[in-house]
């Protein structure tokens, strides 16, 4: 069980909830804070104080006073008017992450919602009911208003959800499991939609996928090193310790362990003096991407436990402050950084693919073809990888450098963080397919060199991959192979594979 406190949620906890469907509950102490915060809101309404978002309109309407009899209608209107997201829905796992993160943020006790709102969010998680939330429509400041409004609709028994593999009306799914829809009270609608949970949820799923992908790139690169008879000296620990980046040093160490005992790896001067950068600089390039991913992880774990709505209630209601924690700039910058870092893994991978297939750069059969000329082999797979890499370059353009004013210029600088996180997700999918191409080519190259000469780890990877991807003995529709390989990389338990086949190492060191 994962117990939410509003302060201690980790990426590892989130993985257990998102992918293992671990049961989620709220800590007793956190719920007490929520109750005190709610009392403050009710006192504000009772005393008819003018407080933004509780007894006033929103955005440019912040100067419009709302009568106490109308506060429930205000919440209803807010959710319905703001639920204007468009486009394809977020992946279901991202929707699940939004529900988790929204519940955790409310548990900090600064938002003024009733405990029943948090209970309903946890009910959705534990029943595996996930709101259908359109991906487009958020500016990433004032919170992810449009996406989170679609989440809030479900608590009211409206909108659509994913449940048991089907897309259906929310009220149908809620009825099946006995969840009673809510009527939102003062401040609750605003508390549900004012926050960065869409971009952060997407960022969280991105990080989980990117982390696994980054480890996999190293193993696939190790296969390529064997296929091209790469030089091991470039991975000598002294080289990397001399520079001082621990991520670079760790990549080099993992590569050394992966090719340990290989008869295909060469020494400096044995076949050539130096390898090309795409082989020799694997630790430097991959290590730099790891530095960026470490930065992203730090920002995500802060934001996952942050109060990001507005206004926030302090000192048992004595102080209600209207601020700007809903602004997504920290996550926008992190996601833009992630885009560049992950795209670079594909850039260098595509160059390794070129070295595997180009007969002017190796001594393998041209394009790894079984019958060069009559059969094209991996020729067009390299084209595919090059296309994906080029597409990533356009997606990697930073979203956070853009801003469009909204709400009659009251909200005059926005983060575009949700766009950044969505583009990062697209890049990750493209990178995985580029790596799938490198994997297919590297498998073929080591086969030509001699499987019996491989390191034990890379041979294990070869044997697992060959269960799904047959040797190239005849031209075929390689699109299917690429998608099968990419799906395998996405779904495999990489940590378990590493622990099983490199028992003397710790995952990630």
Which CATH class of the largest domain applies here? Mainly Alpha
Please give the share of residues in helix.
Answer: 55-70%
Classify the fold: give the CATH topology of the largest domain: Fumarase C, Chain A, domain 2
- Distance, first to last CA: 27 Å
User: pLDDT below 50 for ≥5 consecutive residues: which ranges?
Assistant: none
**Second CATH tier, the architecture of the largest domain:** Up-down Bundle
User: Averaging pLDDT over every residue, what do you get?
Assistant: 93
Structural class: mainly alpha
Q: What's the total count of β strands?
A: 9
Q: What's the story with the biggest beta sheet?
A: 3 strands, antiparallel
Strand order of the largest sheet: 4-6-7
Radius of gyration, in angstroms, nearest whole number: 26 Å
Shape, principal axes of CA atoms? elongated
- In total, the number of domains comes to 2
What would you say this structure looks like, in words?
This is Histidine ammonia-lyase. Keywords: Cytoplasm, Histidine metabolism, Lyase. Belongs to the PAL/histidase family. The chain is 55% helix and 6% strand. With 509 residues, the chain is mostly helical. The protein has two domains: 194 residues, Fumarase/aspartase (N-terminal domain) (Fumarase C, Chain B, domain 1, Orthogonal Bundle), CATH 1.10.275; 298 residues, Up-down Bundle (Fumarase C, Chain A, domain 2). The protein has a three-stranded antiparallel β-sheet with strand order 4-6-7. It has a two-stranded parallel ribbon with strand order 1-2. Helix 4 packs across helix 9, helix 9 runs parallel beside helix 16 and helix 15 packs antiparallel against helix 16. The protein is elongated.
């Amino acid at each position: 069980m994962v117990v939410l406190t509003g302060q201690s949620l980790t990426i590892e906890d989130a993985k257990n909830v998102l992918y293992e469907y671990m049961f989620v509950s709220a800590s007793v102490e956190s719920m007490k804070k929520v109750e005190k915060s709610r009392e403050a809101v009710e006192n504000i309404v009772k005393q008819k104080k003018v407080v933004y978002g509780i007894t006033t309109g929103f955005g440019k309407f912040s100067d419009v006073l709302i009568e106490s009899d109308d506060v429930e209608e205000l919440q209803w209107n807010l959710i319905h008017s703001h639920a204007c997201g468009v486009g394809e829905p977020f992946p279901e796992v991202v929707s699940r992450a939004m529900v988790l993160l929204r519940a955790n943020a409310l548990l900090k006790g600064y938002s003024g919602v009733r405990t029943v709102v948090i209970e309903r969010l946890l009910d959705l998680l534990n029943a595996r009911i996930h709101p259908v939330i359109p991906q487009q429509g958020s500016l990433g400041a004032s919170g992810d208003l449009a996406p989170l409004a679609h989440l809030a609709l479900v608590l009211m028994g409206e909108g659509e959800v994913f449940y048991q593999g089907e897309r259906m009306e929310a009220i149908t799914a809620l009825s099946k499991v006995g969840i009673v829809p809510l009527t939102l009270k003062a401040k609750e609608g605003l508390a549900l939609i004012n926050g960065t949970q869409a971009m952060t949820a997407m960022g969280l799923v991105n990080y989980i996928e990117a982390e696994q992908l980054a480890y996999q790139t190293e193993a696939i690169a190790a296969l390529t090193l064997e296929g091209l008879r790469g030089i091991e000296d470039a991975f000598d620990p002294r080289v990397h310790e001399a520079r001082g980046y621990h991520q670079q040093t760790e990549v080099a160490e993992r590569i050394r362990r992966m090719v340990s005992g290989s008869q295909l790896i060469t020494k400096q001067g044995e076949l050539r003096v130096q390898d090309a950068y795409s082989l020799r600089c694997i630790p430097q390039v991959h290590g730099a991407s790891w530095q960026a991913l470490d930065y992203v992880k730090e920002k995500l774990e802060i934001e996952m436990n942050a109060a990001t709505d507005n206004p926030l209630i302090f000192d048992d209601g004595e102080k209600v402050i209207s601020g700007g924690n809903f602004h997504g700039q920290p996550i926008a910058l992190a996601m833009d950084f992630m885009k560049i870092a992950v795209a670079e893994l594909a850039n260098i991978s595509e160059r390794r693919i070129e070295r595997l297939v180009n007969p002017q750069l190796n001594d393998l059969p041209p394009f790894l073809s079984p019958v060069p000329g009559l059969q094209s082999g991996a020729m067009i797979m390299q084209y595919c990888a090059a296309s994906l890499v080029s597409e990533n370059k356009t997606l990697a353009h930073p979203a956070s450098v853009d801003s469009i004013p909204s709400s009659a210029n009251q909200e005059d600088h926005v983060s575009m963080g949700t766009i950044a996180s969505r583009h990062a997700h697209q890049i990750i999918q493209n990178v995985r397919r580029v790596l799938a191409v490198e994997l297919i080519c590297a498998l073929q190259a080591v086969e030509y060199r001699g499987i019996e000469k491989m390191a034990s780890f890379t041979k294990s990877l070869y044997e697992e991959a060959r269960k799904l991807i047959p040797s190239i003995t005849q031209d075929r529709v390689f699109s299917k192979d690429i998608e099968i390989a990419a799906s395998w990389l996405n779904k495999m338990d990489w940590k378990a594979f590493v622990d099983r086949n490199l028992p003397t190492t710790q995952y990630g060191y």
